[in-house]
Design brief:
The strands form four sheets. Strands 7-8-9 form a three-stranded antiparallel sheet. It contains 23 helices and nine strands. The protein has about 525 residues and is mainly alpha-helical. It has a domain of about 260 residues. Helix content is about 60%, strand content about 5%.
Length: about 525
């Protein structure tokens, strides 16, 4: 019978923190040298295979013009919003079901974002800059709240409006595989921020810990998984398992206290099993310990918190402000990239305050301040941090003005003709123009809104310029084409108006506003006989 002997006591083997001068952190390393994991190459091969399959998927779509919908858990949002049962939703359901039995294997062995983070951590380690974890109690809630926003909020909002859940329908094939993904530059930036920069700053798998909504779902599903990492009586508490874990799990402490790993962050990478010099760890079945107890253990609680509660409050405030600034900026920044940037802003902000207040300060492997003087690295970090916050503040100002203008525009649309409506329109115009002048990149939605307001005010030439600019920025937009056709008609350019509507019907043959304006209103659908 494999049990933990009574004489084994918890032996904290925390790898240390990225932030210096933190009270109560153990900081002790493992006893003896840690051998390389034999499972790391096999897991790397698995992650490479995932990318090869993705390339095959893209090649099939390019060749045939149609393929399976994206195998991405984010696609499940369409299921909850529109009722589309796609490949991403099925992947998410199957992954959660498997996780409930064996734990978070999907994250460790099949997630492309984990692959980028592990690659970055491996490169940094080879350079002698192995990233250390930054631990926050408040930021740990971000993945779960994000998952709720993505997968629960659409249904809750619909219910609050009195609506019903859409009828489920199969949507397994698509002719536009890339429709829900950002462009190549934003994709590359997302991988850089969420897969590399966040690892250097926050430790291995930093985005998994503080940003990934799917990881939050898998963590919940795997809490009671009967199959997990367990320990035999051969364990001597050497700490090799903790030292090799790239998921920042305190393996040695947990198996000593509970006889198994209970941290839901464990991704079943199996590195701890592979490096154990006594072969005391194994993946097996057994009763599941209560994971909540590990968070109450004094040493573990300290190891999981690098910040005081006032600092945690500052982290939360800085995160929310930064998320407001980055989310949807210029209609380009997607949610997960915005979350990664906001987490970085929060941690860098608190670290910057510490650096300015303390005589000595180190972040990761950079000695930033010594004897009350900034080092060369410290000056570099200060410049980079200030650049980050200036950019965030500028983005926040652009976002505030754009959203203010949109609020007044919506308000004007709900008011009858009169002074109040005119005032709302002019305030909307002023705010949107300010957002446009502040912005560094053109925004199709902003140009469309300005064009619509100018048209409403009778400024037809200016309206035409804005609407043409919106279409130039985003040729797939439909509504600006309809408004532009109306503007041309009001200017007496009937032929041009018809040409614009005909172009729209090429893009969208069933576009009702265009059909009505051309006198080709679609017939009502034929009644089905029962």
């Amino acid at each position: 019978m494999n049990t933990r002997p009574a004489f084994i006591q918890p032996k904290p083997q925390a790898p240390g923190s990225a932030l210096e001068h933190l009270p109560g952190l153990p900081g002790k390393g493992p006893r003896g040298s840690v051998r390389p994991s034999a499972r790391s190459k096999l897991r790397a091969l698995s992650l490479i295979l995932v990318h090869l399959l993705a390339l095959v998927h893209i090649a099939h779509w390019k060749r045939s013009g149609e393929s399976l919908t994206p195998m991405e858990p984010s696609e499940a949002m369409q299921t909850f919003e529109l009722g589309y049962v796609n490949a991403g939703f099925l992947l998410l359901v199957i992954s959660i079901a498997v996780t409930m039995v064996v734990g978070r294997f999907f994250c460790g062995w099949a997630c492309h974002v984990v692959a980028y983070q592990d690659l970055c951590a491996w490169i940094l380690k080879r350079l002698g800059l192995a990233p250390r974890p930054v631990r926050s109690r408040v930021l740990l809630w971000i993945p779960l709240l994000t998952a709720g926003y993505m997968f629960l909020w659409p249904s809750l909002e619909r219910a609050l409006r009195g609506g019903t859940f859409p009828k489920l329908q199969a949507h397994l094939m698509t002719d536009d595989l890339w429709a829900t993904f950002p462009g190549p530059w934003i994709t590359a930036l997302t991988f850089l921020v969420d897969g590399a920069l966040i690892v250097w700053l926050l430790g291995a798998k930093g985005f998994c810990t503080y940003g990934c909504p799917y990881g939050a779902l898998f963590s919940l599903a795997g809490r009671r998984a009967p199959i997990g990492i367990r320990v035999t009586s051969a364990c001597e508490g050497c700490g090799h398992c903790t030292a090799t874990c790239t998921s920042n799990v305190q393996v040695a402490q947990e198996v000593a206290r509970f006889g198994q790993v209970v941290d839901p962050g464990c991704m079943r990478c199996m590195d701890c099993v592979s490096v154990c010099p006594k072969e005391a760890l194994y993946l097996g079945r057994g009763p599941r310990a209560k994971a909540g107890k590990v968070f109450a253990a004094p040493a573990t609680a300290q190891a999981r918190s690098d910040f005081s509660w006032p600092e945690e409050a500052a982290l939360a405030a800085c995160f929310l402000a930064s998320l407001y600034a980055w989310r949807g900026l210029y209609q380009k920044v997607p949610l997960l990239l915005a979350i990664g940037l906001a987490v970085i802003c929060a941690v860098v902000g608190v670290a910057l305050v510490r650096m300015l207040r303390r005589a000595d300060f180190q972040f990761q492997h950079w000695k930033l301040k010594q004897n009350s003087k900034l080092t060369a690295r410290g000056y570099q970090a200060l410049v980079l941090a200030l650049g980050l916050f200036v950019g965030t503040a500028h983005s926040g100002a652009v976002q505030y003005k754009a959203r203010e203008g949109e609020r007044y525009l919506v308000k004007a649309g709900a008011l009858p003709a009169g002074i109040e409506r005119t005032t709302a329109i002019h305030r909307s115009l002023e705010a949107l123009e300010r957002a446009r002048s502040l912005g560094w990149l053109p925004v199709a939605k902003l140009e469309h809104q300005l064009g619509s307001i100018r048209a409403d005010l009778g400024e037809l030439a200016a309206a035409r310029a804005h609407l043409e600019r919106a279409i130039e920025i985003d040729p797939s937009m439909r509504v600006p084409r309809v408004v532009l056709a109306d503007v041309h008609k009001r200017m007496g350019n009937d032929a041009q108006a018809v040409a614009i509507l005909e172009e729209l019907l090429v893009l969208d043959p069933s576009n009702e506003p265009a059909l009505r304006r051309l006198g080709r209103a679609p017939r009502p659908p034929a009644k089905t006989e029962h």
